[in-house]
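agent: user wants the full assembly modeled, not chains individually. Plan: 1) parse entity lines 2) check alphabet per entity 3) run joint structure prediction 4) return tokens. Steps 1-2 passed, two entities, 377 residues total. Proceeding.
--- entities ---
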Amino acid sequence: MDELELLKKDWKKEGNSFPKLSYNEIYKMILKKSSSIVKWIFIISILEFVFWVAISFTLKYTGFSDDIANVESNTTFIVMSIISYLILAYFFYRFYMNYRTINTTDNATTLMENILKTRRTVKQYVGFNLIAIVVSVGVLLPYFINQDPEAQTIIENATANGELFKFYAGIIIVTLLMLAAVIVILLLFYWLIYGLLLKRLNKNYRELKKLEV
Amino acid sequence: MHKELEHSFVELLEKHQNIIHKVCRLYTYDYDAHNDLFQEITIQLWKAYPKFRGDAKFSTWMYRVGLNTAITLYRKSKRRISTQDFNDVQFKISAEEYDDTEEQQLKLLYNAVRQLNDIEKALVFLYLEDKNYREISETMGISEVNARVKMNRVKTKLRTILNP
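--- prediction returned ---
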């Protein structure tokens, strides 16, 4: 007999040897909480949204509050924050809608695609925040330098000594290094979390898609 | 209403629980993991049950959710220490039923299936359950032609593992 036929024959017989769970045992199970990757993606994503909103509030209400109060009356700043809130709302809406379409009764490929779509939305949101950090630093830093009396004195001294170029080059290099460090740490963090969580899904998705045209 | 739904669900699941056991049999190798996956599939089925309209057979629907949970949603827990071999403990089939060579062959077969990846296991599972290519393609979300090609490759791979 062909080996696979032998396996099939045995497989059917084996159906009788499984433990039989009672009505009550099954009932207890449906009251328990799921620990699926979708749930974890959802929790982590919510934490990401909260994290970025918290960062923007912390920056607003601590440390530089005086400076920020000055900046806040600036039209560019108002426009920038309105745009960023609109974008946050848009991302949150898309994330939620993606999450809602995840449905275990879809076929395997569609289910995986829907999960990856949710993940992609969050990825774009993180990307948006990283770009937003770079842009705000680019816009706000020159503004602070222009406004800050201390910075003005330094600039005047530097101009007198002919070291203006050195001063600006120093600021730009330090800022870029700090931004790069923050971005690398964050990306590494996301890569670790999602890399581990989605490793199996990605592998299976690639396997399913291998022959499809 | 909710109680009624719960009752009808648990009753149906009790009747068809073997489908979940079979999925667990392919994707887990010890007793705790089997129970873990069984529970997760049950939860996913229960979550999806309000959307189950009965236009598909309950059992067909279970295959889909069960496999989706096993290959997509389930997170293997790494904490587990007990790695008692499930084959040896739970489903030891009495030796008298088979002659030695057949039993030996089956052991090799199940070991070969273990070496397949998640998707290949899903295909073997659907093959063992006598599903046709249309059902396989609908469950996996791939074309029928692709299902056929992949299935043949899995069979070839199994034979290669068995007769190197």
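agent: reporting back. Helices of chain A lie at 3-14, 23-30, 37-61, 65-72, 75-101, 108-147, 149-161, 164-209. Chain A has a mean pLDDT of 84.
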